[in-house]
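job 3f2a | input accepted
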Amino acid sequence: MQLKTNDHIDAALWISFRDDPAQSIYPTHGHAWGEFIYAFDGIMELNIDQIDYITPPPHGIWLPPNVKHSGLNRTAVSHGTLYIHESLCQDLPQQAGILLSSPLVSALFEHLRQTPNAVSNAEHQRLLTVLVDQLKHAQLVSSYLPHSEHPTLQALLNDLHQAPANHLSLAMLAKQYNMTERTLARLSQKELGMSLHEWRQRLKVITAMSLLNRGHTVESIAFDLGYANASAFINMFKRWMHISPDQFRKKFSR
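job 3f2a | predicted structure (254 res):
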């Protein structure tokens, strides 16, 4: 399903909210303003110059003005987009990436989603200005879950996206895609900048964060991701996020 792009904004600072279905796409487009795209639920995936930027809640994707991009929602996604006129983007990053936003950004997005979008309302505009100020201090990181244009690796990664609980070993995956284990390891490092094991762990973290945000229990998430028990899942999550799943839920609960 192809979605309509938003080619007009009503003010120098403007915010909109929408729910997109699974397997929906945004065609390649660009705007003369910056965008901060924040997902309340689901995983956002944007492609810019053959690089995929993927992030779950509570972080968002930053797009500077005039950056061509396309979008794919592998799952249903509920999100908000803050549009910032290019004249207000001087102190924001000049390259696209993931902004590790603060809990205040999450709280402001949730508050604004619950209130009418009154562009002329002075209080509403002040809150949008606070959002911009917060984003100026947020850390910018590269794509959390890199993508590859290599046909075989791309097919493998797509299959893993569909089944994050897949626990096949590197050797078994290599055999499944007619490669040696050593070839797959080298290809992953070259194309992704990390081992396939790290990529799979990141995929599980992203999936877990989305499920936590939707109220799933730690035990059910552990089962969905193929873990024998909750403890093994919790240890994996803490290793990557430095907080437990329950701490993550409390910190970023809506």
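job 3f2a | DSSP finds nine helices and ten strands in the chain.
job 3f2a | closed
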